[in-house]
Amino acid sequence: MTLIAILVAALSGAVPAAAAPPAAAKVATGYSHTCAVRAEGSLWCWGGNYSGQLGDGTVTSRTAPARVGTATWTSVDGGTSFNCGIRTEGTLWCWGSNSRGQLGDGTTARKTAPVQVGTSGGWASVSAGDSHTCAVRTEGTLWCWGFNRFGQLGDGAAVYTATTPLQVGTATSWASVTAGYAHTCASRTDGTLWCWGDSSMGQLGLGILSYRTTPDQVGTATNWTGVTAGYLNTCGVRADGSLWCWGENGYGQLGVSGTYQSAPVAVGAGATWSSVTAGFDTVCATRTDGSLWCWGNNASGQVGDGTTTHRFAPTRVGTATTWTGNASAGHHNCGFRTDATLWCWGNNDSAQVGDGTTTARPAPVQVALPS
């Protein structure tokens, strides 16, 4: 779930959906598994595999990275117990748990190896939530599928579940999307931000504690560069480098003290944030100087500060200034550095940290990705 990881370019404004993805490594974390795309395009997964979320055709857990087929990929995103990714030719594939149709293949049967969503290419980005998925196509249209109890598919709650993609409205200006537990947010190429689905804790940022079944604009700002949805919270970065969060705050995942917030609140006084990723009740963000900061739920050491104390303000992870922003947060977190090394920390009950053990790691440890 973590959710979900939407990566943003801090000072560039909203990126058009048609832009080609950069040749950079990507990492995604689910509840008990991890997947990563290396810079040359190979895809690797490890950790828990009870739903086939490792994509290797089995339900056998892995304590170290195992390659998923031989195809080349540009991106991957991890849901609670499933994944979706885009291959270099622009086709979209999903695998793992599928009880709500979140794989988009027209069924509700789990898949232990990647299955294609539709038959066409042209997919630009994808985000996997708990039981629903959303993706942006290169022409700027937005599509969602899976569970829709709270209107998180953005279709006006016309269906309870959708096993194939449904278009969200008719706009062709969507730039990015993020799927949370039961809510969805997306940015448009004009820099506006829109959210829909469950807002029982204010996670839509609309000042409400109910829900919306179609996209509703968050405030009036036109400089959002990216957004990330956690369990019941959401965070976003603006082009001026400011960071904003809203929703549930029981663990401090908004980066401020107090209870829930139903509208965006600024995190800290600085304006040097470049990317942010949220998953479950933990958030991590990078600054323009390459430092990495995390906060929120720290029960398994996922804040990365060597403790298990929940943090209500951004807490720096080590002293490195080489974090790329290609990171993913959840009960365990992972991030790439500029030297292409991958580091993970936090919960490790299913070997999802990838260090060959099942020992929780309260500080980053390097993952040995095969060459």
What do you see in this structure?
This protein has 371 residues and is mainly beta. It has no helices and 28 strands. The strands form seven sheets. It has a four-stranded antiparallel beta sheet with strand order 1-2-3-4, with no helix packed on it. A hairpin with a 3-residue loop joins strand 1 and strand 2. The chain is globular. 61% of the residues are buried. The N terminus is likely disordered.
**How many β-strand runs?**
28
> What class do helices, strands and sheet pairing give?
mainly beta
What proportion of the residues form beta strands (DSSP E)? 35-45%
Profile the largest sheet.
4 strands, antiparallel
How much helix, percentage-wise, in residues? Answer: under 10%
User: Span between N and C termini?
Assistant: 28 Å
Broad shape: globular
Instruction: Determine the number of helices (DSSP H or I, runs of at least 4 residues).
Output: 0
Give the strand line-up of the largest sheet.
1-2-3-4
Radius of gyration: 18 Å
What is the string of SSEs from the N terminus onward? EEEEEEEEEEEEEEEEEEEEEEEEEEEE
Unreliable stretches, pLDDT < 50, 5 or more residues?
1-23
**Mean pLDDT across all amino acids:** 93
InterPro entries: Ran_GTPase-activating, RCC1/BLIP-II, Reg_chr_condens
Organism: Paractinoplanes ovalisporus
Protein name: Alpha-tubulin suppressor
Pfam families: RCC1, RCC1_2
